[in-house]
Amino acid sequence: MNQSKRLLYNAFVSSIRLYQRLFLDLRVWGREHIPPGPKIYAQNHITSTDPYWVLPFLPEPVHVIIGPGYQSKVVARVLDYFEQINAMPQHRKTVVDEAVKYLERGESIYTAPEGHVQETFRLGRFYPGVARIYRRIQVPIIPIALLTRRSAIKEHPRFRMVVEGKVYRATAVWRGLFCINVGEPFMPELTGGEEGDESRRILDELKERIRLLLEEVRVSKFRA
């Protein structure tokens, strides 16, 4: 991002930070695990607005891989201005290239490999995009586990989106407890095996790390 975009990005993040202080009971662990340099942030997906509660705790602007949010032409213009990554069906073939381009520049990307919002404490299927990006450029992957109380999640049916016949729920946490647990960076070894096998191995390791982070919060820090 150029300087003017960074200033606007930082102003946006500052507004989020103010809202958090006023309305959210935020609990964050593991920020010390975030290394300098380009990296891939990968989180579990519990609400439509997950990344926005995480952005204030990241040390740099990130390029978020976004799908249904690009359905609105107005929102799409804003996302493009801030160099987010369009993952709508007609752009899916370019997602990996776009992510790699930013990582090669020394900038970081942010993704939710599940694609769809999942129930709290449950992990869904991880799509292979994050593994394909890593296979192209080896940078640290930062697993992030997000948790909240089920009662804190608000459904907004009027904002549901349908993409290729799939319904994407619109949910958010506006008040109350929201937990962010950042795990240690890892860089899976590439063995030169079949692409599908290697991608599954990367995704399995990422999913297990996020599962353990979720369990850590559930057992020792989170009270449902």
Distance, first to last CA: 40 Å
- Sheet with most strands: 7 strands, mixed
Q: Which regions contain 5 or more consecutive residues with pLDDT less than 50?
A: none
Structural class of the secondary structure composition?
Answer: alpha/beta
Q: Please identify the top-level CATH class.
A: Alpha Beta
What is the molecular shape? globular
Tell me the Rg in angstroms: 17 Å
- Approximate helicity band: 25-40%
Main sheet: which strands, in order across? 1-11-6-2-5-3-4
Mean model confidence by pLDDT? 92
What is the CATH topology descriptor?
Glycerol-3-phosphate (1)-acyltransferase
Instruction: Give the topology string: H per helix, E per strand.
Output: HEEHEHEHEHEEEEEEH
Number of strands: 11
Counted by DSSP, the helix tally is 6
Fraction of residues in β-strands: 15-25%
Just name the CATH architecture.
3-Layer(aba) Sandwich
